[in-house]
Sequence to fold (306 residues):
Amino acid sequence: MVEDHRGGELSPGAREWFATPGSFTSLGSHKLELTGRSSGELVEQVVAAVQNLLIYDVVAEPFYGVTLSAAAADEVNLRPVADILDRVLALDPRPLTAPRAPEHRVAARCHNYAKTTVAFLRAHGVPARSRCGFGACFRPGWFEDHWVAEYWNDDTRRWVMVDAQLDETWRRMLGYEGNWLDITPDEFVTAGRAWQGWRSGTADASRYGFSGIDEHGAHWIAGNLRLDTTALHKIEMLPWDVWGAGWEPHQDPPEDLSIFDTLAALTADPDAHLDEIHDRCATDPRVHMPGTVFNVLRQREEQVAT
Fold:
C-alpha cells in the first residue's frame, strides 16, 4: 500500500499529536526564527537551516573536507534535538539561521536530519513526523537504511516527505535530480511497505539493509518497522537501538511474524490507527521501548529517558 493523502483531511487529533513536540523533538530553550507563512515556505526554510547545522559523519572528509575527532563523530548518538542544538551553539553561538562552515556543524546521520527537521516544524505548529525505512537513491537497485521527515501540507492536503540530508553536496555526489522537498514513494520506501512487499513476494528482502556493513535482509526490515512505529508514537530512537521483537542477521525469521504484519498495516495509514499505535507502543512488550536498549554502534546497553 502506498501512503497518499492527496485531497484528504487531517483529523484534529492527528494534527494536534504531530504538531506538538515529544521528548526528543522539544527545542528546549532554543528558537529558530522563520519568515515563511505557508507550511511549504516553512519547510523550505527549515530544511535549509538543518543542512547548515549538521554534517553527515561518514562522508565528512570526502564530501566536505572535514576530519572529525572521535568525540565529534560520537555526536551521532545524541538523542534529544535540544542536546544537538546545545552542541551546535557550543561550536558557534550565533543564531541558528547564521551560515556555518562545515567544520562548525554537528556530526549527524539521516535520523538526526529527519528528527531535527521534525522538531523545527513542530515548534512552528506544522504537523510533522520522522519516518524510518529505506532510500533508493544511494545505490542503484538497492534500498538503503534511511530516515526522512514527513509533514502535512495544508495547501495540497497531503503528507509530504522531505530529505534534509540531501543538501547540494549530496545531490551532486549522487547525481540526484529529484525534489528533496517532496520525496516520492519510489525514492523512499517506509519500513511497513517494505515488509508488506517482502511478505507478498513482490520485494526482495536481500536488497534492503545497509551496504556500509554489507548487511541486508528481512531482519533489517523488521527492525526498521519497529523503529518507524515508535517514531509515530513520538519516541524517535537511534537507528542502531535494539530492543523488543526481531532477530539477528544469521538467524532464520521466527515462525510467528504476525506482530510485524500488524505494525506494517498500522503504519501504512498512521492517522487512521493512531490509538492502536499508541497502545502497542505503550503496552506490547514486543514494541514498547522499555527504557533500556542496546546501542549497537557503542556496543553497550543504555538508559533512555522519554
Q: What stands out?
A: The radius of gyration is 18 Å. The chain has one domain: 12-303. Residues 39-53 form the longest helix (15 residues). The first strand starts at residue 54 and ends at 56.
